[in-house]
Design brief:
Length: about 190
């Protein structure tokens, strides 16, 4: 089922995980830019004991606060421009992620189709090898009984050789399609092939 394979790819592919992490990071950068414009408040609290021996020592509390904001440095327009630019970077990454998903789905469908086709091709080539082996037996029997010529035997051998080459090629193509499918769903990587 292609849907299950696609879901497996979304779950297993490292490149998709990396793109998701990149998008999350880029969104966090956007939020960081938003906080640049906001003034930064600082609050401090102190407790001191004051008094004399004659009069009792009593606590004295001091609560202070100030706001750190440099008007020329964190202007609204500069921050707004950074946020808009970062939003566009996030949009671009999201579009890249969606395009990657579409390509993976297309590649999975293509790999499944190639696997099915090459499996049928492999079975057909196997049948052709069997028929070619029977053909060479018939040509040899006719030759030994004097009803055939050596050229018939050579042609039958050539046909056997050709059918074996086609069978091996079909096996190789089937294996390639299977490896492509495993790669597309994220079960193997290029390094592990």
């Amino acid at each position: 089922d292609v849907k299950k394979l696609f879901l497996s790819a979304v779950e297993n592919r490292e490149d998709l995980k990396n793109l998701k992490s990149l998008i999350k990071y880029q969104r966090n950068v956007k939020y960081t830019y938003l906080t640049e414009f906001i003034p930064k408040p600082y609050i401090s609290f102190q407790e001191q004991f004051q008094g004399t021996v004659d009069h009792s020592v009593k606590p004295n509390y001091v609560l202070g606060g100030y706001i750190d904001w440099i008007p020329g440095q964190n202007t609204f327009f500069g921050t707004f421009t950074k946020v808009k630019a970062q939003k566009e970077i996030v949009k671009q990454s999201v579009l890249e992620f969606q395009n990657k998903l579409r390509n993976i789905q297309r590649d999975i469908i293509s790999s499944v189709s190639n696997s099915i086709f090459n499996k049928k091709e492999m079975l057909t080539a196997k049948n052709r090898v069997d028929y070619s082996n029977e053909s060479i037996k018939l040509a040899m029997g006719r030759f030994y009984n004097g009803q055939g010529i050596l050229l018939d035997v050579i042609e039958a051998q050539s046909e056997v050789t050709q059918s074996r080459v086609e069978y091996i090629t079909a096996i190789i193509n089937y294996n390639i399609a299977q490896v492509e499918l495993l790669y597309n769903i994220g079960k193997i990587t290029k390094e592990k092939i």
